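Entry:
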Amino acid sequence: DAIKASQEAYEKNMAAMEDSTKSTNTLLASLKALAGKERRSAADKQLLTLYVNKLNDAQEGLNLTYDEQADLLSMDVDRLEAYLSAIERQNELLTQQLTLEEDLATAKKKQAEINAQFAAGELSQWQYNDQIKDINASVQQYVLDQQGVADDLAAINEQIANTDTAAAQTVIQNAEEVQA
């Protein structure tokens, strides 16, 4: 039951993330279309500002900026697309990690129940060994899965940090270009 509930919660979180991703991708496509224009009108610039603000609202910590006067984004759209993709993957991994932690807690709870049943004489040594063997195999798999998720998260976090650094450099370059 607990594993089924955990799976349902995972699927619900994934569905919510998919909806958020679709909305973000729609905004990104609109932003890309406007950013790709050679000459932007005042209305185009206002729309770009709106899209930037909506993307910032949709993605915590994005900190994307658009300078209407200089007509410059703080991050080029290809880098922005890669960044948003990395954030999406990070969210998926965090959800997966949470599910694994719940599954591990459930397995440990089951192990405690089996230990109590054995101590109370409700299970034979054979039954106990068989059930504990299955739980131990599950726990080992959870630990391996958690390590894989942790490794993937570390790589994604590094990618996000590198993109943040590049975006900061772009802001500095944009400011220097405006001053020149």
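Strands lie at 66-67, 72-73.
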